[in-house]
Amino acid sequence: MENFYAPCPRGLEALLADELKAAGAESIVPGHGGCAFRGSWEACYRANLESRIATRILWKLAQGPYAKEDDVYLLALKRDWPKLFSVDNTLRVYVTAQRSPLKSLEFITLRVKDAVCDRFRDACLRRPSVDTRNPDVRIHLFLTDREATLYLDTSGEPLYQRGHKIAKVEAPLKENLAAGILRLAGWQPGIPLLDPMCGSGTFLIEAAQMSLADAPGLGREPGDFGLERLANFDAALWRRLLKELAERRVEAKRLPIWGSDIAADAVARARQNLAHAGFDDLVTVERADLLERSPPAPEGILVANPPYGERLGSGEELASFYPRLGDALKKRYAGWRCYLLSADPQLPKLIGLKATKRTPLFNGPLECRLFEFIVVAGTNRRPDAGRL
Length: 388
Fold this sequence. Notes:
Layout: E1 2-7, H1 13-22, E2 26-31, E3 34-39, H2 41-50, E4 58-65, H3 69-77, E5 91-97, H4 105-124, E6 137-143, E7 147-153, H5 175-184, E8 193-195, H6 202-211, H7 235-248, E9 257-261, H8 264-277, E10 284-287, E11 300-304, H9 315-332, E12 336-342, H10 347-351, E13 357-363, E14 366-374
Parallel strand pairs: 5-6, 8-9, 8-11, 9-10, 11-12
Antiparallel strand pairs: 1-3, 1-4, 2-3, 4-7, 6-7, 12-14, 13-14
Helix pairs in contact: 2-7, 3-4, 5-6
């Protein structure tokens, strides 16, 4: 059993804990922005392949107190790095700090790199090369005010990079946050789903993958995972898991999933991404204005990441758009549960509908709320709806 840590978007820790348990993890401890856990290497491999919420899976190597840079250097020097990966692999050190007394994170990054390279020099008479753009091995250092923790990244590129999207639009929603929102909304395969502001199609692709029981890690190319470059990589176990997950896939058929966008270029990019993922014949995407379009089914779940803040511009534009959005939902979407992600806490007041839930989430560094609106026939407005 090894110790691991899986970071995720803040607000989704409980969902991540459920996924890790399903992957075989034990002693799961949710925190702020991730979960610590213990598990076998099979649990680590499964989490990398199957988790929709985790950003990456980090293998905990060392932890100890520190007061100065040399303490961290010595902590890193104690690990026998040549037993973990080959000197022929390129590497990069990443540092994250919270309330650290150290003056320069750049300097401590160099000190950890020096410790790793010094162990290789002593054992192999040469040092691994550094690659800051596309390293084979990623070493993560996390600093609190008193303690340093070293991790080896088993994921490589972030796990939300499923390998499906080739066309992007401004202000994208990361795939693991989209997957979490679908889970928080209570969406399950077979329930009609609409994203009327679909952008590059993130919600649509995640929902299609979930409908087909398509493990997100299967979309990545061979060799993309960091664990495949570690000395203890179990190729036979990895192949067995890949085969098991591939056989779990459900036969593709037309899905009750719809997307639309008012921008023609966004529709084109969503279609391109769906085609690249192999879902273009399964999901319906069209150009339409949310304020005018009709629902594709009598009831279902609507999810959207509507424009807010910098994405739309002035407060006057927001004040004009949101009341019209509320009118459209009330007029056409009775029987639907609507979920809107927004950084604007005044959203319910602006659109004039009562939020039945407000779930705190982070879209990157931006604090947001996922608002739930259950639209029913008849009035659901407050008397002051739309007033600022």
